[in-house]
């Protein structure tokens, strides 16, 4: 039996091809099933992109937290969107902020924060943090759980 609320989803239950770029990647949303404020967390510990100068791969642990309003992101489409960065040349800051802005544009969440914990490039780890403001009162905000980079230390 089909649920007509999900008939417009193209990726869920589908083939799941990876887009050539983040700009071409679809990001699907569904109606928020809850009325109360709550936190949604997505963790991508194996995020990759390409250095726009050297063409070498860059690696990050991305943590996305948001408090939905009317929409939640469909998780398979988010996974494929994040995977579309594999051949995308951009600096750490640009990739992290591009993800945040796309989620804001698509979902209009009540609140969003993103932590981009990038592995060292040139011996220096770069971490990028962004949030849209203060979280709604009463929402539990756990630590993102990613330790600062310590090398082999």
Automatic annotation (TrEMBL):
GO terms for molecular function: preQ1 synthase activity. It holds the Pfam family QueF. This is NADPH-dependent 7-cyano-7-deazaguanine reductase. Substrate binds at residues 73-75, 92-93. InterPro entries: GTP-CH-I_C/QueF, NADPH_dep_7-cyano-7-deazaG_red, QueF, QueF_type1. Catalyzes the NADPH-dependent reduction of 7-cyano-7-deazaguanine (preQ0) to 7-aminomethyl-7-deazaguanine (preQ1). It is found in: Cytoplasm. Belongs to the GTP cyclohydrolase I family. QueF type 1 subfamily. The active site is at 51 (thioimide intermediate), 58 (proton donor). The gene is queF. Its EC number is 1.7.1.13. It is an enzyme of class 1 (oxidoreductase).
């Amino acid at each position: 039996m089909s649920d007509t609320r999900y008939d417009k989803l193209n990726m869920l239950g589908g083939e799941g091809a990876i887009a050539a770029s983040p700009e071409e990647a679809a990001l699907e949303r569904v109606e928020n099933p809850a009325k109360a404020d709550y936190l949604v967390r997505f963790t991508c510990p194996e995020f990759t992109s390409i250095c726009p100068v050297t063409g070498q791969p860059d690696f990050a642990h991305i943590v996305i937290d948001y408090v939905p309003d009317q929409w939640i992101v469909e998780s398979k489409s988010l996974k494929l969107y994040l995977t579309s960065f594999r051949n995308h040349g951009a600096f750490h800051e640009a990739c992290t902020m591009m993800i945040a802005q796309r989620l804001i544009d698509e979902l209009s969440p009540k609140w969003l924060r993103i932590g981009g914990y990038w592995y060292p490039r040139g011996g220096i780890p770069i971490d990028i943090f962004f949030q849209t403001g203060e979280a709604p009162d009463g929402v539990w905000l756990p630590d993102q759980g990613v330790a600062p980079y310590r090398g082999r230390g």
